[in-house]
C-alpha cells in the first residue's frame, strides 16, 4: 500500500464537489493564500439543517477528507468474482461526481480500466452473493 495522498499544486475547481462536514458539498469560492497555497469556502446544506458555510478550508484539509472518504487504496486487491481478484492501480477524485474513480488492473498486462467508486462497490457486492 502507498502512503497518503499528495497535495496537488493545481487548485480544486469552484463548484467542484468535495467531501466535507459529513457530506459531499460544492466549493463556493477559492482564493490564493501565502502559506496554504489555496483556501476554500464550502457550502454545506443538509436537508434537515440550514446552510453551513465553512471558511478558509485549506487544500490540505480537503485532501485529508478525500483520503478519509476513500474506500480503496492503490495496491489493494478487490474481489470482483469467485476467481477474479484485481489490484487497484491508482485513484483520482472526480469533482463532477464527488467520489473517486479507480484504475483497476485488467486480466492481462496493459488492460487496466477505470471505474467509479459506487460502481466498483456494486461489482464487489455482486461478487459476494
What's the N-to-C terminus distance? 27 Å
Uncertain regions: pLDDT < 50 for 5+ in a row? none
Helix-and-strand structural type = alpha+beta
Q: What percent of residues adopt helix (DSSP H or I)?
A: 10-25%
Shape descriptor:
elongated
Number of helices: 2
Q: What does the main sheet amount to?
A: 4 strands, antiparallel
Mean pLDDT: 92
Number of strands: 8
**SSE string:** EEEEHEEEEH
Strand content: 35-45%
Strand order of the largest sheet: 1-2-3-4
Q: Provide the gyration radius in Å.
A: 17 Å
Question: How does this structure look, described?
Answer:
- The protein has about 130 residues and is an alpha+beta fold.
- Helices cover about 20% and strands about 40% of the residues.
- The protein contains 2 helices and 8 strands.
- It has helices spanning about 60-70, 115-129; strands spanning about 15-20, 25-35, 35-45, 50-60, 75-80, 85-95, 100-105, 115.
- The strands form 2 sheets. It has a 4-stranded antiparallel sheet, covered by helices on one side.
- Strand 5 and strand 6 (about 85-95) form a beta hairpin.
- The longest helix has 12 residues, at about 115-129.
- The mean pLDDT is about 90.
Amino acid at each position: 500500500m502507498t502512503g497518503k495522498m499528495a497535495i496537488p499544486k493545481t487548485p480544486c475547481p469552484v463548484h467542484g464537489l468535495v467531501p466535507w462536514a459529513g457530506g459531499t458539498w460544492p466549493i463556493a469560492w477559492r482564493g490564493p493564500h501565502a502559506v496554504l497555497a489555496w483556501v476554500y469556502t464550502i457550502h454545506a446544506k443538509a436537508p434537515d439543517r440550514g446552510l453551513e458555510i465553512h471558511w478558509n478550508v485549506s487544500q490540505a484539509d480537503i485532501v485529508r477528507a478525500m483520503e478519509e472518504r476513500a474506500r480503496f487504496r492503490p495496491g489493494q486487491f478487490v474481489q470482483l468474482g469467485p476467481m477474479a481478484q484485481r489490484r487497484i492501480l491508482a485513484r483520482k477524485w472526480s469533482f463532477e461526481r464527488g467520489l473517486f474513480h479507480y484504475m483497476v488492473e485488467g486480466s492481462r498486462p496493459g488492460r487496466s480500466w477505470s471505474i467509479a467508486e459506487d460502481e466498483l462497490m456494486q461489482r464487489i457486492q455482486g461478487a459476494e452473493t
